[in-house]
C-alpha cells in the first residue's frame, strides 16, 4: 500500500501513532488531515496537509471530499484514524468512499505495521 491518509486531531499523544506509521511504512503519498493547530505536526517526508475548517459533520465531509479530489492517485489508501473523534472519523471515511476510493485501516502495533 503506497498511499496513507491520516487524521491528526486534538490530543497530541495520538500523534505518536501517526508518526510511527509514517516512519515505518513505505509511502509514496502521505495526506495529513487536521485543524489549523495540526500544522505543527512535523515529519521529514513530503506530504500534503488538508485543513479542516468546518464543524458540522456533513460540512466536514463535504469539505474533505472537495479537498481530497485529485490528491489520491490509486484506488485504495491506508487510513489511520487513531487520532480524532467519531464525527471526524465518519466524515473522513464518508468523504473517501464518495471519491470513490477504498480504505484499509492501518495501525502501528508492537508487532509492527498492520493493515486490515
CATH class reads Alpha Beta
Count of discrete alpha- or pi-helical segments spanning 4 or more residues = 3
Helix fraction by DSSP (H/I, runs of at least 4): 25-40%
Q: What is the domain total for the residues?
A: 1
Radius of gyration based on Cα positions: 13 Å
What's the CATH architecture name? 3-Layer(aba) Sandwich
3D structure, described in words:
With 116 residues, the protein is an alpha/beta fold. The protein has a single domain (3-115), classed as 3-Layer(aba) Sandwich (Rossmann fold). The chain has helices at 15-24, 57-68, 86-97, and strands spanning 3-8, 29-34, 48-51, 76-80, 102-109, 112-115. Strands 3-2-1-4-5-6 form a six-stranded mixed beta sheet. A hairpin with a 2-residue loop joins strand 5 and strand 6 (112-115). The model has no long low-confidence stretch (mean pLDDT 94).
Task: Summarize the topology.
Layout: E1 3-8, H1 15-24, E2 29-34, E3 48-51, H2 57-68, E4 76-80, H3 86-97, E5 102-109, E6 112-115
Parallel strand pairs: 1-2, 1-4, 2-3, 4-5
Antiparallel strand pairs: 5-6
Helix pairs in contact: 2-3
Task: Summarize the structure in short.
This protein has about 120 residues and is an alpha/beta fold. It is built from three helices and six strands, in the order βαββαβαββ.
Short key terms for the protein model shown above:
alpha/beta; six-stranded mixed β-sheet; 116 residues; Rossmann fold; single chain
